[in-house]
Specification:
alpha/beta, globular, 8 strands, binds 2'-deoxycytidine-5'-monophosphate
Length: about 230
């Protein structure tokens, strides 16, 4: 593993980690890894190529050979994602895709197939990595590990607003059910389950807005990075 500075931000879906991680990376001028997008791409590609969700070897092969391009965004907005030269940005963000991603992500061979690809994102001047197992499995030596959480009701509410803004037609009750189901699958699976690393700083964001969470994380980062440079 190389020695590039890495900040990991893990947590369940709707904890705000996607938005926060992207903003933090933009702020620091660092690279950004949206690891959930990789699992979503495998789920989407499997659907397009009719690879059944129980064909573990087929899914792992597809994951290993994943033909993806993440375009760069200057504004901190979500950039376009191309799967096999086709823009799939909005397809990736649907709840159906998220749920299928959570199913393919439970397959150890798929996780293994995506390991090196994720680690390759750690390039100078640094990386902000967003996911479920960034601090526990992918970047265990990260300089700073954050675990964001919030109640399921609050996360469903945030997800609802986010999806509505993007023009998706969703029901809040269905979202609460889906989030609870996805949390259970992500945290109970054998392979790299969703859980804070033992050295992660856990922040409950239920009663905080994005600006407050970002300010808190930046404060932690400034302290930690200053400590590291003094050693
Ligand atoms: O963060 P997200 O909602 O885009 O992630 C979609 C699914 O992918 C999530 O339910 C679990 C899985 N995932 C994972 O298992 N490990 C990661 N590092 C990121 C996502």
């Amino acid at each position: 593993m190389n020695s590039v500075a890495v900040i990991t931000i893990d947590g369940p879906s709707g904890s705000g980690k996607g938005t926060i991680s992207r903003m933090l990376a933009q702020d620091l001028g660092w690279h950004f890894l949206d690891s959930g997008a990789l699992y979503r791409l495998v789920a989407l590609g499997a659907d397009k190529h009719q690879i059944p969700l129980d064909d573990q070897a087929g899914l792992a092969r597809f994951a290993r050979d994943l033909d993806v391009v993440f375009t760069h965004s200057q504004s901190g907005e979500e950039p376009d994602v191309l799967l096999e030269n086709q823009v799939v940005t909005s397809e990736l963000r649907t709840e159906t895709c998220g749920n299928r991603a959570s199913q393919v992500a439970a397959i150890p061979a798929v996780r293994q197939a995506l390991l090196d690809r994720q680690r390759a994102f750690a390039q100078p001047p640094g990386l902000v990595a967003d996911g479920r197992d960034m601090g526990t499995a992918i970047f265990p030596d990260a300089s700073i590990k954050i675990f964001l959480t919030a109640s399921a009701a609050e996360r469903a509410q945030r997800r609802y607003k986010q999806l509505k803004q993007k023009g998706f037609d969703v029901s809040l009750a269905a979202l609460v059910g889906e989030i609870t189901e996805r949390d259970a699958r992500d945290s109970q699976r054998q392979a790299s389950p969703l859980k804070p690393a033992t050295d992660a700083i856990v922040i409950d964001t239920s009663a905080m807005n994005i600006t407050e969470v970002l300010a808190k994380i930046k404060h932690i980062c400034q302290q930690r990075l200053a400590d590291v440079s003094q050693q």
